Each structure stands twice: as C-alpha cells, then as structure tokens.
Known about the structure:
The protein is of the alpha/beta class. The chain has three domains: 3-86, Arc Repressor Mutant, subunit A, CATH 1.10.10.10; 92-161 and 267-296, D-Maltodextrin-Binding Protein, domain 2, CATH 3.40.190; 163-265, D-Maltodextrin-Binding Protein, domain 2, CATH 3.40.190. Helices cover 41% and strands 25% of the residues. It is built from nine helices and twelve strands. Strands 3, 4, 5, 6, 7, 10, 11 and 12 form an eight-stranded mixed beta sheet that branches. α5 (105-116) links the parallel β3 and β4. The radius of gyration is 30 Å and the shape is elongated.
Amino acid sequence: xxLRQLQYFVKVAQKQHVTQAAEELHVAQSAVSRQIHQLEQExxxxxxxxxxxxLQLTSVGKLFLARVETILADLERAVxxxxxxxxxxxxxxxxxxxxxxxxxxxxxVVAAFRKQHPNVKFRLxxxxxxxxxxxxxxxxxxxxxxxxxxxxxxxxxGELLLTExxxxxxxxxxxxxxxTEIRLEELQDESFVMFSEAYSLRRIVxxxxxxxxxxxxxxxxxxxTDTIRGLVAAGMGVSMMPEMALTETSLLQPAKVAITEPxxxxxxxxxxxxxxxxxxxxxxxxxxxxxYFRKQQ
Length: 297
C-alpha cells in the first residue's frame, strides 16, 4: 500500500468522480483508476460502487476513508512539525533545567531570546543533576542547564556559563542574622534544612561543611528552594543557597549572610549530546546563551 494510493482514494471519495479527482490531482484519469483498482485488490474489498455517472463509497469504504483521513492528517502535521523543528526562526527548543534556575535565570534568558525570535517555542523539563544528563543522552531534550557543570563526561559536552556564590540563610531572629559575613564553622551546632539526596546543592553544602570541619545535623529535607527558604525563615534551622534562588520575596524570607571561610560556590553550565549536531533552532539558542553569559561576566 502506497501513500499515493491513499491520497488518490481520498480525492475520489471527496469528488465521487474519477475524472474530477484526476483533474484536481493533475494526473491522468487512467492513473487514478489504476491506483484505486490496485488498492481494492490489495485490501480484497470494493471501496466504491457505480451510481449513475458517479462513484459512491461502500459501507466498508466509508470506514476505510475515516481511518485514512486521520492517517493523512497526522502525516501532514508531522511534516509541518519537522519543518518547524528545523526552522531556526520557527521551531521548538527542548530545554532542561534544575529547579533553582527556574525561579529567575531561565525565565530571564527565555524572555530575552524571544524578543529576538518571537515565534520560537520552548518545551521545558525540570530535573535533578542525574535526570537531566539522562534526558540529554536519551534525546528527550536538546540542551540543559546543569549544576554543577561536569568537566568531563563520556556522552555529554558543553560550556561553563557562570560560577555563583552560595550564601548562608538564617532565621531573621538568629544571633548571626545581622552579620554581613560569617565563617561556616560558626554554624556547626545548628540544625540544617537540606535539599534531598537527589539534588547537587546538597552535595555542595555537605562538602563545604566537611571542609569547615564538621558534618551538619540535618533536621529537615526538601526538594524545592521555596520550601527550604520558608522552613529556614520559620526558624526550623539554617541552610545554604545560591544567590539567584534568593531573589524571590515572600512573607517568610530568611536573612542572607555571606560565607568567607570556606568560600562556597557552584558552577552552572549548558550541556548537549556529545558528537551530535543540534537542531538549527537549538543551535541558535545555544549561541544566544553563550553570548548572553559572556556579556554578564
């Protein structure tokens, strides 16, 4: 069964006449008749019956037409989607990001990009460090923001975008809340509100505490930055958080204090599948991001 046979069949069904169908298809009448005959032979059914000078669909022909019209419509949509996907001014970019970047950074860069490319669509996927790398490798997304940035990896490649400082966050009534800066060891006797084990920020905080000579006593765990921030503000403990995750204001807002010893930072990068060319629209977005963050430095 060929696509051309299905297209000829639909046209004949619409016109109820081989000659008129052939004229609209810009082919010979004999070509249309031959394709319809071959389709009926392959299916083992009669699709049309003669009624006067016109052709009328049989009952099974009507059933077949409904299915074929759905198939051709899906195919047409697929072709349009492929063309849009490959059009750098009209396609769709599939982007992954960790939660902490979804508060401020991601909306900011997407809005800036869409000022230049208003017809580009975005499909966004939030995830953890490991899930974002997996999604890149499996082709579920084209690009992903990632933190920390993996210096080497067998299956992904990318560029470092920025290095961001982490701050101590404390309840506003905390004894150190009014300080401009503290040493991390000053928090060794505090209860910590920590990200869950799937999140890279947890590993960064644990490594910093170890460097400061202690292991934190974890009282609460969470997966959202606003949850961590809210629990700290409510007096449930202390934590550490990157600056861009502290830009949102709310009724429950903790105090932010710089840490001098050790200096705690995280890297943020952009990754893609190694040794694979990006779709044109994703490549345009990648170039935009690299230039955007270069100007921020």
